[in-house]
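Schema walk-through. Below, the input block comes first and the output block second. Nothing else is stored per chain. Lengths vary across the set, and this one has 171 residues.
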Amino acid sequence: MRVIGIDPGLRRTGWGVIEVNGSQIRHVGNGVCTSTASEELAIRLFQIFTQLKNVIVLHKPTCAAVENTFVNNDGAGTLKLGQARGVALLAPAEAGLSVSEYAPNTVKKTVVGAGHADKSQMMHMIKMQLPSVVVNGHDAADALGIALCHAYQGNYNQRVKLALSRGKLQT
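--- output ---
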């Protein structure tokens, strides 16, 4: 399984790709898609979409994981972030990938062990779990964390669904 994790943002959308083979996890790539702040919103969203599509073509993930939007007091900012998140969902869906979504606290709890971990703790644990990685900033680290979360959570969820479909678990 090759997972692309995406941390949506209008200025900086982080991405990270890992490969999962059984219990082994290997770093494939990471980076940031950026948009030009002086452009109108539609152009900025298109810039992110185009860059994400290029990353998907280059790294050939088999599934995607996207972080849920954090809602704050700034309604306009939250709406713009939601639109960037829509692009982050659209790019892998257009490529035919299944897309899973994770809350920020779920990602942090899965990767760090604490749901309110800070960025330095996330970066530390990313480097512990992917020893050879050179991380392209905090947005890329968050995206790698999202990919790792999917590697751990997604496999479990898929096994549960499979067991349910085979009648081995009762709901």
